[in-house]
Amino acid sequence: MSLLSDDRRGSIPFGPFSSPPGGIVSRKLIAEMIGTFWLVLGGCGTAILAGNQVGILGVSAAFGLAVLTGAFALGHISGAHFNPAVSVGLWVGGRFRGRDVVPYIVAQGAGAILAASVLYVVAQGYPDFLIEPQAPGAFASNGYGALSPDGYALPAAFLVEALLTASFVLVIMAATRPRPDVPSDFAPLIIGLALTLIHLVSIPVTNTSVNPARSSGMALFAGAGVLSQLWLFWAAPLLGGAIGGATYRVISLD
After folding, report:
1. Cα separation of 94 and 89, whole Å?
2. What membrane topology does this protein have (predicted)?
3. Quick one: fold of 6-251?
4. CB of 92 within 8 A of CB of 34?
5. What is the dihedral sign for C-alpha 85, 79, 61, 50?
6. Where along the chain do its domains lie?
């Protein structure tokens, strides 16, 4: 049995945080914009402003905490996707209306760009702030080859981004499925921990995207080299999200 009936495919409930049937689309889009803003501000902001102090573990935890808290705050309004790849994956998995995918992606992109703009203004307040366009991870950007933190080539970057996004969507779909043996409030925690693990694995490879909106917002400030590689951080996560959604749909008992 599907988690959502046909009249409730506008959101993904986190336990009791389920949207009313039908919902108000504008509220959901605003919630997605705010949630994506929070995710990028918290995760990328930690990388830019405190990365030297907290390291990979701290940055990974920041992304996990951002999605965890955002899901608790906004999951009952929009489903707390905060990621175009998640929206696509949930649509393929039968948990989200196809007509809402593009509006969600636009809202998520707007939130990411707004967060990146705020971070750029804040970072300029530091006397020695400088974006080095050809440096790996410049302004918390994603990249492969010369722009990969550890120099990983394009095939490795594509595989990691697609596989980890697929895994992330599968975890989301499993965590948000009602289960009598697990309190429903645990879903945001499980999803946040999954995103933390994903960052621990892939920061050395691509600086971790698994989220096209997050990558696009930062790329606008990171230079032409990063922008030229942005296609991968749309193609791989969207493909991975679709694979994750389809896989869960096949193997689950929903």
Report:
1. 9
2. Multi-pass membrane protein
3. Glycerol uptake facilitator protein (1.20.1080)
4. no
5. positive
6. 6-251
